[in-house]
């Protein structure tokens, strides 16, 4: 291909040509801008001295060297683990009431299991690193040829070749590409989540480097900024052939972005490994701990306080009794030999003995602290996450994506969500645009009915409307709705010339790149946005097919109205004035085959109508009316216009424009914008487009169920207010009978102040207006409470900015929280994060944010729980989220089923853990009191060590993984059940203290009944009465039976696993006692043959076990029977109705007359209570 004089750089004026100003380049060489890169010169002595980092990347938390010390540090940051470590050390002293090994063994086991888990997770990260580091890339070597090498061997200054669809191995300076002007297309989805292609271009001075011969002679030096995390800026200078060339981000290719639509590029390595911008950005997400876990820490502190208290009580009594053992030269308890003692028992130094006994008590009663609690919860949460990941009901076949729990720390919080804050585009909708309607020359085309229109019609008529296909794949639906345009029929229309220009503009005014599928030979388009793809496809359906794009030309297959055949037309592309959020429009300048200069433009109606010429407004009123109608139907609209340019005018403008965009001055961008405005005037209106972003399947049903569960739903969208309101009705966020409160600054007085340039006056008036509207809304809130009417709040972005002011935020929040639904229109990413923070911090309740794009990341990280939608806008939201789902509708099951189950399981599990440890620990205390606080434990050392590890740990893990109060079907059928988590019914302080008191009561029953039944009874064949060993074994048997049977009573849903763990734990106690009893008495001590010789042959042992265990369970059983009958919780009511053979529980339904009146009232007011709670 011959080299053309016209460069591709002449075409792109904004994002592609933002070179840094000279002020920034003056910083080169200073602090922060000291990096020097010698390009293609590895033998340069100066280069060898720089000693930059290699390209090896590691994302692991540990290394082989620091794993043990770092992991141990992580484990002993937990107070409980640190306590047991101190106890383990002290247990080597004479103060210990048991052998040191019996404390060390369970501690090492718990720590070891956690470290193994950490090691496995880190090994998985290491495998990903190895895969990335060993990818292959072509490097230009000393032999002046390209050879393959691994990524990890790359060095700063190397010249590499990257081929199409390959990732960039490091941060590169683009030298040249397969295009003669050195441009390339880059996909940055791994960096910012955006799937649209970015255009990069090389400097003209290096664009000629197309072969090994030219690269052989290439030597240069780069001076640039030091490594930093800013993805969107780069300051540097290329020193080449005695000249300096400023570098901008448009010449930089970042690691982990992908080369697209370009055969190959040549680049020089600037940053490697952890110096690359993507690695500089790879910080850990904000640490999130669940509220239950934070409360659990407080419970641990309570237990520590209890431990200190009972140790203190015991030491005081021990000190008093010890002092009394020697009074007036007489020994009271002579058998203790007070005359021959150590400091542990010395009547003459009773205070010291009491203090040492206090230390002994701290170790002895340490079993109040559950050593295996943390590791058990971690195991349970990981297994819960596995079930979430493998839930077939949350698997999306279309995208082949399952649900994914990216963290297991927050599983229980899924069951406590009070407010959901959601993005709209791509979250509630498909983000797959469908060109459904248009207005051309004042005529409306497209007769289909959108989802919003169906919802509006259903709301007005009260009758269901037939749903259309829920597919999110069709980009063009015109063929289903209007035959006047399809199959070339538009040529018979009265305004066929304008129709032809309209669709020609859609085919030309874009940056879409046509690609051909090699298998099907179908043409598809790589477009910067779904909207643009929809426009190009719609133009193709109407006979204007974009089939080829080069740097200089756009080629179309056009339908010729005269012959009715398709002809090839080539348009010379002269300029592209790109779309930006400030410009709100995009334009192209092309030259037709007839040598006619055309400016084609499309943009928002707010900026396009003011640019029309006097003679170009022929059907402005009709078009505005159609746009209004389209917005009410939930459609996204753009205005299309054109202008025929005069040759002289264009040449003069082009000269000014080229001068402005190549200027290295601080006001360069302002000059470029002004010149773009200059030519984008005097336009002729062609019409308007209307595309539909369809709702995802199941969104209305999901929102309706979440609302029934009492969850407040806020939608934060960038759409217009009219569009957002109608989308709200379509997705059931706004419902019939709701009273709508609207806050907007679209007011004539404020517009007048803004047009006069009175910014201060406009700001003051806006603040006052928003304050007034909020107060009016609060007045409506009061009247709505009296009539039990649901409220909804709609606020635009401008008003939201003022509502978040410190003076108004609490009033705004009070109003918003009283509403069932809130819609914030025209919201920026900053608004989303600020609103989320406001709701989270001011209410103290659980917030969940859900979104799919890079603009939702701040919101996801700010919320208590972030849920990412793995949709069309890339994976940035997913990477910043705690949970990922493929469709919004899966949020219903994630919260109402998994959230409810996980909350209930974790709450029950923690309460039970404290119950069983208190029940066990206090039997030690009662025995101590019985023996005058002698410091002698009631049980054998290994009994105590294995209690939390083997005899009671597995059933509680099974509870945390498998228990279900009701089935998944009933969780979805009765969303009100979710309120147990929102109101924290199962883990409030009253319930926690209730479980603790039950543990104390269980210990009292076991100790008193066992001692009174067993002591002085002969259990051995030789007639010996019950001794310390038999009493300890019997009491321990009763504890193991009682706590495991308590678990059986607490479980609602039995599987064979629960049965195996519960009864297996009890059975393992007997097996252990038999095996341990056969060990030498020097090791087994009090356990030697105690079961075989003393306990098993005695009927009394078995009778006591049965009676004591039943007695210990009676209080809890009686309470649960009373509660479920007279003060039932939500799940109790459902279980009662199921037992009666009816599952219908609705507000106002008749309830069985056999139920107590309180239960009837509670059933009847379940749903009504939610409305009252919100109010």
UniProtKB/TrEMBL annotation:
Function, please? Involved in transport of phospholipids.
Alphabetized UniProt keyword annotations: ATP-binding, Magnesium, Membrane, Metal-binding, Nucleotide-binding, Translocase, Transmembrane, Transmembrane helix
Top-level EC class? translocase
Protein name, please? Answer: Phospholipid-transporting ATPase
Location in the cell reads: Membrane
The protein's organism comes out as Linum tenue
Q: What is its main location?
A: membrane
State the reactions this protein catalyses.
ATP + H2O + phospholipidSide 1 = ADP + phosphate + phospholipidSide 2
State whether keyword tRNA processing applies.
no
Its needed co-factors are: Mg(2+)
User: What EC designation does it have?
Assistant: 7.6.2.1
Record's bilayer topology term? Multi-pass membrane protein
Which GO cellular component terms, listed alphabetically, does the Swiss-Prot or TrEMBL entry include? endoplasmic reticulum; plasma membrane
**Positions of Mg(2+) binding:** 423, 425, 852, 856
């Amino acid at each position: 291909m011959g080299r053309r004089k016209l460069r591709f750089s002449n075409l792109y004026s904004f994002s592609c040509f933002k070179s840094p100003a000279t002020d920034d380049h003056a910083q080169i060489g200073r602090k922060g801008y000291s990096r020097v890169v010698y390009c293609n010169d590895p033998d340069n002595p100066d280069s060898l001295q720089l000693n930059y980092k290699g390209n090896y990347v590691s994302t692991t938390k540990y290394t082989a060297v620091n794993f043990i010390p770092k992991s141990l540090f992580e484990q002993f940051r937990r107070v409980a683990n640190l306590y047991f470590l101190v106890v383990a050390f002290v247990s080597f002293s004479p103060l210990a009431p048991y052998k040191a090994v019996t404390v060390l063994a369970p501690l090492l086991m718990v720590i070891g299991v956690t470290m193994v888990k950490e090691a496995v997770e880190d090994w998985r990260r290491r495998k990903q690193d190895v895969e990335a580091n060993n990818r292959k890339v072509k490097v230009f070597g000393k032999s002046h040829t390209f050879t393959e090498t691994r990524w990890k061997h790359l060095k700063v200054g190397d010249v590499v070749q990257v081929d199409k669809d390959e990732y960039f191995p490091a941060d590169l300076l683009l030298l040249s590409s397969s295009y003669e002007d050195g441009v390339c297309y880059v996909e940055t989805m791994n960096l910012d989540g955006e799937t649209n292609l970015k255009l990069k271009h090389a400097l003209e001075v290096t664009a000629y480097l197309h072969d090994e011969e030219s690269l052989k002679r290439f030597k240069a030096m780069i001076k640039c900024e030091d490594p930093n995390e800013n993805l969107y800026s780069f300051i540097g200078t290329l020193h080449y052939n005695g000249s300096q060339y400023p570098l901008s981000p448009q010449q930089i290719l970042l690691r982990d972005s992908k080369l697209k639509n370009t055969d190959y590029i040549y680049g020089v390595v600037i940053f490697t490994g952890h110096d690359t911008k993507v690695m500089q950005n790879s910080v850990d997400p904000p640490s999130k701990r669940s509220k239950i876990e934070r409360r659990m820490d407080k419970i641990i502190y309570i237990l520590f306080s209890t431990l200190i208290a009972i140790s203190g009580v015991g030491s005081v009594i021990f000190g008093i009794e010890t002092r009394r053992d020697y009074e007036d030269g007489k020994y009271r308890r002579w058998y203790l030999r007070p005359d021959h003692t150590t400091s542990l028992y010395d009547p003459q130094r009773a205070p010291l003995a009491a203090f040492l006994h206090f230390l002994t008590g701290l170790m002895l009663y340490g079993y109040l602290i559950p050593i295996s609690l943390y590791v058990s919860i971690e195991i349970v949460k990981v297994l819960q996450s596995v079930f979430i990941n493998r839930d077939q009901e949350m698997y999306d076949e279309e995208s082949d994506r399952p649900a994914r729990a990216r963290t297991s720390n927050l599983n229980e919080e899924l069951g406590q969500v009070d407010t959901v804050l959601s993005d709209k585009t791509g979250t509630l909708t498909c983000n797959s645009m469908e060109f459904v309607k248009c207005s051309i020359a004042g005529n409306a085309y497209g007769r289909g009915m959108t989802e919003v229109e169906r919802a509006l019609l259903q709301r007005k008529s009260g009758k269901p409307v037939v749903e259309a296909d829920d597919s999110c794949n069709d980009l063009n639906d015109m063929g289903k709705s209007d035959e006047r345009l399809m199959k070339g029929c538009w040529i018979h229309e009265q305004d066929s010339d304008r129709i032809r220009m309209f669709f020609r503009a859609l085919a030309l005014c874009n940056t879409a790149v046509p690609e051909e599928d090699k298998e099907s030979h179908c043409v598809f388009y790589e477009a910067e946005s779904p909207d643009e793809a929809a426009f190009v496809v719609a133009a193709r359906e109407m006979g204007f097919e974009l089939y080829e794009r080069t740097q200089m030309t756009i080629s179309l297959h056009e339908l010729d109205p005269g012959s009715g055949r398709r002809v090839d037309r080539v348009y010379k592309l002269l300029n592209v004035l790109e779309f930006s959020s400030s410009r709100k429009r995009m334009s192209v300048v092309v030259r037709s085959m007839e040598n006619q200069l055309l400016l084609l433009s499309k943009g928002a109606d707010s900026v396009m109508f003011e640019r029309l010429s006097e003679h170009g407004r022929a059907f402005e009123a009709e078009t505005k009316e159609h746009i209004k109608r389209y917005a009410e139907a939930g459609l996204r609209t753009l205005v299309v216009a054109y202008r025929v340019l005069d040759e002289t005018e264009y040449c003069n403008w082009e000269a000014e424009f080229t001068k402005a965009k190549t200027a290295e001055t601080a006001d360069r961008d302002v000059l470029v914008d002004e010149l773009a405005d200059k030519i984008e005037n005097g336009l002729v209106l062609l019409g308007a487009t209307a595309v539909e972003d369809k709702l995802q399947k199941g969104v209305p049903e999901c929102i309706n169920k979440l609302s029934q569960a009492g969850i407040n739903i806020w939608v934060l969208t960038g759409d217009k207010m009219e569009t957002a309101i109608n989308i709200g009705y379509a997705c059931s966020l706004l419902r019939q009978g709701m009273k709508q409160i609207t806050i907007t600054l679209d007011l004539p007085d404020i517009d007048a102040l803004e047009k006069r340039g009175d910014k201060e006056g406009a700001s003051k008036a806006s603040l006052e207006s928003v304050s007034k509207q909020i107060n009016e809304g609060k007045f409506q809130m009061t009247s709505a409470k009296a009539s039990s009417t649901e409220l909804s709040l709609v606020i635009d972005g401008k008003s939201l900015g003022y509502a978040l002011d410190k003076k108004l935020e609490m009033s705004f929040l009070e109003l918003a929280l009283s509403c069932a639904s809130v819609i914030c229109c025209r919201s920026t990413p900053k608004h989303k994060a600020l609103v989320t923070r406001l709701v989270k911090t001011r209410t103290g309740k659980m917030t969940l944010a859900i979104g799919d794009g890079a603009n939702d990341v701040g919101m996801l990280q700010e919320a208590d729980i972030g849920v990412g939608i793995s949709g069309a806008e890339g994976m940035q939201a997913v990477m910043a989220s705690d949970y990922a789902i493929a469709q919004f509708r899966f949020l219903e099951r994630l919260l109402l089923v998994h959230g409810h189950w996980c909350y209930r399981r974790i709450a029950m599990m923690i309460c039970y853990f404290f119950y069983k440890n208190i029940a066990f620990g206090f039997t030690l205390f009662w025995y101590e009191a019985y023996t005058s606080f002698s410091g002698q434990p009631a049980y054998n050392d290994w009994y105590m060590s294995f209690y939390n590890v083997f005899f009671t740990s597995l059933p509680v893990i099974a509870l945390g993984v498998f228990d279900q109060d009701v089935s998944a079907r009933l969780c979805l059928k009765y969303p009100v059940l979710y309120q147990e988590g929102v109101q924290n019914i199962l883990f409030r302080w009253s319930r926690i203290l209730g479980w603790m008191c039950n543990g104390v009561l269980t210990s009292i029953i076991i100790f008193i009944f066992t001692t009174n039944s067993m002591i002085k009874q002969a259990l051995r064949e030789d007639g010996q009465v019950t001794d310390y060993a038999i009493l300890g074994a019997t009491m321990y048997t009763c504890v193991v039976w009682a706590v495991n049977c308590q678990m059986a009573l607490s479980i609602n849903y039995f599987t064979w696993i629960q049965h195996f763990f519960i009864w297996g734990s009890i059975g393992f106690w007997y097996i252990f006692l038999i095996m341990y009893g056969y060990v030498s008495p020097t090791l087994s001590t009090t356990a030697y043959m105690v079961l075989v010789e003393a306990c098993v042959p005695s009927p009394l042992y078995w009778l006591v076990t049965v009676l004591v265990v039943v007695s210990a369970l009676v209080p809890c059983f009686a309470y649960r029977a009373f509660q479920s009958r007279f003060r039932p919780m939500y799940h109790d009511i459902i279980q009662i109705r199921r037992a009666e053979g009816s599952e219908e529980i609705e507000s106002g339904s008749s309830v069985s007359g056999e139920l107590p009146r309180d239960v009837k009232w509670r059933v009847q007011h379940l749903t009504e209570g939610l409305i009252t709670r919100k109010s």
